[in-house]
Amino acid sequence: MQNEPxxxxxxxxxxxxxxxxxxxLLADPLALPxxxxxxxxxxxxxxxxxxxxxxxxxxxxxxGSFLFDLRHLVAAAxxxxxxxxYFVDQMLTDFRVRRGLPKQLSIVGCGxxxxxxxxxxxxxxxxxx
Length: 129
Known about the structure:
Elements: H1 15-27, H2 33-51, H3 57-63, H4 66-73, H5 86-92, H6 95-98, H7 107-110, H8 113-128
């Protein structure tokens, strides 16, 4: 399919061609980064959300910003340096590292503000070269 001209009036792609293209994309761990990171986040958070009750005090505190976290999370699939809160850090687990990117940074995940700033500086320097 790659580099083939698109000719108007040609019949639509056969299911076998579409299936082969999808299989090829799914086999490549670097393909479809936005879809993969959202799926990864939902997988890691879904059980936690399902275990909460709507009346739980912690539910609103913990998951009230989840949709906004997802919007921010999409950048984690592409950015050379990615900072986040500990909740997003836990959602990502090793997703960035498996894609060849540096681990995401959170203050809690780094062990405190001093380590966070030092690691942030190191990642920024590495990304700038």
